[in-house]
Amino acid sequence: MDAIGTLFAKLCMGAGLRVHGTAEFHSVIKGYNSIFQIRVAETPVITHSNHYDLVLAFDKETTEEFLRDIVPDGAVIYDPKITEVKRSDIGVFPIPLRDIAKEKAGLDLAKNIVGLGAVLALLDYPIDPLKKMLEKQFGRKGQEIVDKNVAAAQAGYDYAKTNFSKSFGYQLKPIKSEKTFLADGNAITCMGAIKAGVKFVSEYPMTPSSSVLHFMAKHARDYNISVNHVEDEIAAMNMAVGAGWAGVRSMTATSGGGFALMTEAVSLAGMVEAPVVIFEVQRPGPSTGLPTRTGQGDLRQILGAGQGDYPRVIMSPGTHEEAFYMAHEAFNLAETYQCPVIVMSEKYLAEGYVNLPFLDTSYLKVNRGKLLDEKDIQQPFMRYAESADGISPRTIPGMAGGAHTSSSYEHREDGYFTEKRDEVTAMHARRMRKMDTLLAKLPPARLEGKKNADVTLVCWGATYGPATEAIGWLAKENIVANLLHIKYLAPFQPGVRELLETAKHPILIEGNLSAQLGGLIAEKVGVEITDKILDWSGRPFTPDQIALEVLKLIKK
Length: 556
Prior knowledge:
Elements: H1 2-14, E1 18-24, E2 35-41, E3 52-56, H2 60-67, E4 70-78, E5 91-94, H3 97-105, H4 111-122, H5 128-138, H6 143-163, E6 180-184, H7 185-196, E7 200-203, H8 210-219, E8 226-229, H9 233-245, E9 250-254, H10 256-272, E10 276-282, H11 299-303, E11 313-315, H12 320-337, E12 340-346, H13 347-350, E13 353-357, H14 421-439, E14 447-448, E15 455-460, H15 464-475, E16 481-486, E17 488-490, H16 496-502, E18 506-510, H17 516-525, E19 531-534, H18 543-555
Parallel strand pairs: 3-4, 4-5, 7-8, 7-9, 9-10, 10-12, 11-12, 15-16, 15-18, 18-19
Antiparallel strand pairs: 1-2, 1-13, 6-13, 11-17, 14-16
Helix pairs in contact: 3-4, 3-6, 4-6, 5-6, 7-8, 7-12, 9-10, 15-18
C-alpha cells in the first residue's frame, strides 16, 4: 500500500498538484486491513478526509468497509473473484487484479501496480510518467523486475480503458505551479535538525519515531553526522546528553514508552544544563497501546517527566512546515537556555505525507547562546555563575581555562557539590529563571480566522489541520469559527488567557480521553473550557467529524 500510495502522490506532485497522504495499518505482523489515503488538489492540502471519490480495494474487508464512505458518483475498483459490489449510485469497476498480476508479473503481489495503472486510466492520465517512476524505483533490482512491473501497470491501464467505456467523473490534469518536494513529517523534522547543524543522533527504534533514525542514517555521511543505533532508550538519552554537554548539537527520538525510560537522563540534562533535543512522536497508550495509530495522550507525561523542578522547553508543531522550523528552533533554544528541548509530534503528522514548496531558510541562523571563546573565559571559571537571566557562561571540553565539574548532584557556581541551604536554593532558582527569560521572548498565541467568531476551536499539535478545515464546514452552516492553536506548552505560550477570556464559545479539541491540554490551560491561565471534542480511538480527527460535534455542542 505504501509503495503505490507514494507513487501516486509523486505522480500528482509531478503534475503540479498538492497532496496529503496518510496511512493506517495494524501493528500485528499478520497485517490485516491497511489503507493509504491521498487527497489531491490544486491548492495546499493539510488534512485527510474519510469521504472518498475513488477507492482501490484489494480484499473483501476493504471493499466492504470503505464502500459506504464513497461519495455519490464516486467509484470503486475491486477484484470480482474476491467480492462483489452492490451500489447503484457509484461507478463499479471490477478488474481481475490478481489474475493480471500473475500473468504479467508472475506474482499476485503485483496487483497493486495493476490497480495503480487502472486508477490512472479512470482518471484519464497518461501511463508514461508511471512507467518512468517504476524504472527508477525498481532499477536497482534489475531490468527483469522493471519490465514485469511496467507490464503490470500497462495491463491494468489497458484493461480499464478497454472494458469501461463510461468515463469516470474525475480527471487528473497537470497544472503549472512552483516546484515542490514530497516528504513525511519525520523526514521534514530531520531536515530542520540537519539545517540546524545536528551532528550526533542516538536512538533506539520505536514506532512511530523509527523513521527519524532511518532518515538520519541514510544521510549521515552527506552531512557528517554520527548516527548511533543503540541498545535501548536509556543509552540513547544518556549518550545524547553527553554529546550535548561536550558541545555537539545532539538529539534523540522516541515515543511515549521509550521516553518513559529516558526521563532520569532528561532531568540530568536539566541539572548539568546540557543542551539536548528530544523528538517525542506520540501514539496511544497505556503501555504498548496502539503502536501504529495516532494520539495526543503523552502531554502530561512529558510535562512531568524527571524528578524535581528543572528547566525544559516543550513545543508541538501543527503542520509539516512548522515541523521543519520548530526542529531548527529547538536546537537554538537548547543551546541558548542550556536545557532539554522536547518537540512533541504524533503519528498522524510524523508519518503523513505532503508536498511543499522549497522552504525559505535564508533567515535561519545558528545561535549557540553563551558558549564562550577561550579569550573570554575569566578565572576562576564559574560554569554555573549567577546571572540576571538565569543563563550561565558555558565552555566545552578542550577549552583552555574552561575546565569545570559537572555532576548529577546539586552544586555551587563552580560546579562542586553542596547541600548548604542558601547555595541550593539560589542555584535552583537561577536555573528556573531561564524559563522566565524565555517566556518573555516567546511569540504570543494568536487567533486564526475572523474576530468575534461564534466559536473558537482550541487545539494543539496536528489536530490543527482538521480543525482548520472544519472552519469551512461550519461556515456552510452559517457558523463563524476561528482557531487558537497552542504551540508552546512549557513554558506556556503567553496570550492564551486574553484570547480565551474574550472568546464567545471556546471548544477544546484533543486526541486523548482526559483533555490534557484543557487541564494545562486551566492550571496556567485559570480558564476552564467546558465544551470538549475528544477522540482517543487512535484515529486522527477529520474536518467533518469536528464540525458535526461543534454543531451538537451549539445546539446543546
